[in-house]
Amino acid sequence: MKKYIILVIVLLFSALCLNVFAKTKSYPFEVVKSGKGKQSIIFIPGFASSGEVWNETKANFEKDFTCYTLTMAGFAGVKSQPNASFKSWETEIADYIQANKIEKPILIGHSMGGGLALAIAADYPDLISKIVVVDALPSLSALMDPSFKSKENNDCSAMVNQITAMSGDQFFQMQKSNMPKLLADTSKLDMVVDWSLKSDRNTFAQMYCDFSNTDLRDKIATIKCPSLILLESYFANLKPTIENQYKNLKTANFQYANKGLHFIMYDDKEWYQTQLNNFIKS
Questions:
Q1: Which pTM does this prediction carry?
Q2: Would the N or C end of the chain have less CB density within 10 A of its end CB?
Q3: Which residues fall within 8 angstroms of residue 178, CB to CB, at 6 or more apart?
């Protein structure tokens, strides 16, 4: 009888520990859950961006879908975590989906978030129902250097040192001058620059370096789900190059924006929303 009681106590204690761990596990992102619906959408923002970049987008889906909007650790004021990497973020998003029993979600990712959507759908092909990639490529560096090959154990220390050594004003001026190349909607410029200013400088540099070393061109061959690839208007001039990068993604549906730059959700709103509606609600 005593042995039975001890066994029950051990089992109850183990269950309690597991429950506490499940509740306290720290993921490398913050999550805002909204809307209601059996089908879920997970929104992944781009480099140094807040989940707020999806505010107008998710407003159109919250009535019929449960929305999970992420902001990655170290970006846009969210507390940083050590050892940030593209691979670890991919793994942790997939773990979050599984741990929270989110059944066959749709992933929508912008820029680096689009890269994460591709990687998750490739490495966990049965986990995802659809993906939308908003202006991202399997290998950004290969667009500028066709001979690019990803390096193992890539050393990002030079990039980290360069970015973290900048003064606050130098970093601000860099972001202020670069952002108009990515965003045509001037009413959003200050907001997007502010997200990068609120980002942890070490994470900013580390993830820029790591994503620049990422090459998903072969990996995407394992993606099984329907994939909508939304690209900025300029990329229409580079269709052969762009679509060659995606040649292994057999489920790709390419659509090129009519106007604007990298932040398509702001620069070509009506076209963008129509594409999403047609793809997600079909």
A1: 0.91
A2: N
A3: none
